[in-house]
Amino acid sequence: MMKDKAQTVHDGRAVGRRIRFLRGTLSQEEFASKVGISRAALANYETGRTMPKQKIIDKISEVFEVSPKFLTSGEVQSVEEFAVSLG
Questions:
Q1: How many percent of the chain have pLDDT more than 90?
Q2: Distance between CA 4 and CA 28 in Å, rounded?
Q3: Per-residue pLDDT band at 1 (split at 50, 70, 90)
Q4: How big is the CA angle at 4 (ends 21 and 66), to the nearest 5 degrees?
């Protein structure tokens, strides 16, 4: 079953908020460089304009030591990840 457009937009915004949260005090340029994407792509992810592909989600997860599931759903997999989610 395909998600409707409204659900996809909602998911994109939620993922974008979590990416923005992980970025913390890093500039978009710094964060994008660490992940290997453009600053413009990061801006689009953070605003929910576009959804990152799975390989980008995996890379962000690897660099910032959270599970891909945290980025896509907000679910935490460990105590450490819970601490990260709290800031």
A1: 59
A2: 30
A3: very low
A4: 25
Pairwise CA distance, residues 52 & 46, whole Å: 10
Please give the angle made by the CA atoms of 68, 2 and 6, to the nearest 5 degrees: 80
Tokens of 70: 């945290």
Distance, in Å, from the CA atom of 62 to the CA atom of 59, rounded to the nearest integer, reads 5
C-beta of residue 15 within 8 angstroms of C-beta of residue 51: yes
pLDDT value, residue 9 = 45
DSSP-assigned states of every residue in 12-43: HHHHHHHHHHHHTTS-HHHHHHHHTS-HHHHH
In angstroms, the CA 39 to CA 28 distance is 6
Contact 16, 46 (CB under 8 A): yes
Average pLDDT, the chain: 83
Q: Report the predicted TM-score, pTM, of the whole model to 2 decimal places.
A: 0.78
